[in-house]
Amino acid sequence: MFFKHTSHLLLLILGYSLGIIVIYWNFFSFYTGSPLLISLSICTFLLAYFTKTRPYVFWLFCFLATFLMGSLRMEMHPSQRLFKTLHHEGKQKNTLETINPFTLEINGNKPQYYQFVIEAPLKSQGKQYRYVAEISPIKIKDCTVLANNHLKSNPIQTVKALLSHAKDTLKEALKIGQVGLAKGYLNIPSATQLPRGFSYKNYLRTQDIHFTLYISHWKKIDNSGPKSGYKYLAAMENIKRDILEKIKTTAMDSAAIQVYSALVFGEKKTLDPGLRTAYQNAGAAHILAISGLHIGMIAAMLLFILAPLQRLPRGKVLSSVLLIFCLWIYAVFSGSSPSVVRAVAMFGFLSVGWIFNRPMFSLHYLAISFFFMVLWNPLVLFSLGFVMSYAAVASILLGMPLVESLGVPKNKYVKKIWQLLGISLLAQLGVLGPSLFSFHQFPLLFLVTNLLIIPWIGILLGLGIFTGIWWAFAKPPDLLVWLLNKGFSILNNTVEWIGAQEQWILKSIYFPSSYLWAMLLLMAGFLIWQHQKYHKPKSIQYFFCAVMIFQSIVMGQKIYDHKTNEHYIIKSYGQLSLLSITPRTIHYFSEKPLDKNTLNSFKNNYGIHEIIHKEWANNYQLEEFKIIFPKTTNHIKGPISHIIIDSSARAYPSHFKPEQLKNTQLITSGFYPTKEMNAWEKWAPYLEDRHPRFL
How many C-beta neighbours within 10 Å does residue 598 have? Predict the structure, then answer.
């Protein structure tokens, strides 16, 4: 399981990753990298001193040095510097409103002009098209682009934003590399909408996106086509779009086309939600994301095609270079997802090792590819796809020797099935923690799914790539299209049948972040045990220690949950609701019952299945908080901590005594403004429209 220097390599990667995490979550704050550089210099000196005298101390300082390197890399990353600048300016101005990154002033409610470059199209949402765009400030006079002149020095010249526009405002969606001029509102993304819920704002930050920009119209300001640097990406995107448009004109089923597009082209934006759910319930969602499974099959096909080149002088080098080149082209063509880049990088390092006849320790190449990806873009460390991809492969590489030590069947067909089951089980164990933390469900039939589908995927992938290349130049024969349609239809029917067996799907699993860290510590203890057992007897004590820590964390979380007593005001689909959360029950007060997704979110995030709905009352007393929902002008005595105002409110500030509203906070829905709402907004000394609101 472990080879020479494996533990040392993992130690260095762990230090570098922890350095990135510490700076990203602001456990330590540095406005310059000078303290980190000084610390790194001291560590380097100590490394040189302890190189030969004390090897254990040497590796300790290696860990500290890589920790400081990761911290410095994250501290100097433009996204982190932008985040800290905006946070600092907002704190200085004592405001929660959007700070314009170019002027460092409060953005206000006035639309402004921006130049944008489309980096990547995203899945459309409802009646809107969405894109990742690079935006920069401009000044407009008579529709002429002028230079941007800031009143104060500011190094921020461009930022990434989530750009969106209504589908009916433009004739067609914008394309990669398109440069335009638009007038719109620059805002910060909305924060968490539900207690302990998914934060879209934090997710966008991991993608280096800190703003949203909505535009109603735009003007093209570059007639030469895509911006330089995006031309090749735009060309690949056009080829992919043309092929997919040709596929849609055939007699293939819609579901077959969607899965074919995801499996071969990495195009998942058009995937039907019901079909996606079926793959998730069957434990086959990894098939829809191009990963090492797909890259391995494609590499095997390319090696077979390039095999004759190895007979030529230096043919080994030539075939390896062509293999790596083709795989990287396919990675870019399919969207460059973290799982694809990881797989291609691993194959690249393996090919280089093969050329120079170096020992092929896959775990080393996995670690090296991990390091270079995080070195290139530290934010990728917070990508769920990146984490699950590396966790699955690492689990397979570390666990397969242990599985094989249990015994391998002699029959070659039974052996293949045994290996497939072992790989599927280990991959599922590797991603178990992140999967439960993110999705809160576990499909028990994943082994059956992989056993039935994986062999079928190889045939469909080869047939799909061959047909796609044919489509790029001419129309393939109807027989080939029929075979492709039939194959994907069988795949979809099998997955949908397995996914429909809901009694085999564990749902609403409570798995907080503490459980995730506990599971990581448990895995670390197991790895240390496996490493130490080659050197010391009875080293299982390391694993037992990890088990005890795991149990302590789980018990501590249960004690913490037993003391839960929280109150929130949330806004879900435009409806205000008051929540009172106790260890066993969630009571919520609202006009109408909350939707199913919101209720499931409460079950997942709190592990509480008893949720009781009650209609709005006029006032509530929750511990020391007195909360008023003034649907009538009934007289209310005593000081008021919070007043909830929406379109159904019928009370004015004049209906209350001044001393009652001395320390009152106003919470408004912002929908369908009425004269009562306007009166309260004019009166309110402090208005906050963030939800959830902790009381």
Answer: 19
CA–CA gap between residue 123 and residue 258 (Å, rounded): 14
d(CA 666, CA 649): 12
pLDDT in tens, 283-328: 888 888 887 777 877 888 888 888 888 787 777 788 888 888 888 8
Query: How many CA atoms lie within 13 Å of 476's alpha carbon, on the beta-carbon side?
Result: 23
DSSP three-state, residue 117: strand
DSSP state of 476: P
Q: Which two tokens stand for residue 281?
A: 């319930």
**Nearest residue to 85 (alpha-carbon basis) of 162, 157, 156:** 156
pLDDT of residue 556: 92
Looking at residue 544, its pLDDT comes to 84
Are 156 and 85 spatial neighbours (Cβ–Cβ below 8 Å)?
Answer: yes
**Neighbouring residues of 328: CB distance < 8 A, sequence distance ≥ 6:** 344, 348
Q: Calculate the CA dihedral of residues 611, 614, 619, 621 and round it to 10 degrees.
A: -30
Kindly state the DSSP code that residue 310 receives in the 8-state scheme.
G
Give tens-digit pLDDT for 201-251.
Answer: 888 888 889 888 888 878 877 655 666 667 778 888 888 888 888 888 888
Q: Are 664 and 638 in contact (CB under 8 A)?
A: no
Lowest mean pLDDT among 149-158, 385-394, 647-656: 149-158
- 8 Å CB contact between 647 and 671: yes
Q: What is the pTM of this model?
A: 0.83
Describe the crossing of helices 231-248 and 254-265 by its angle, rounded to 10 degrees.
Answer: 150
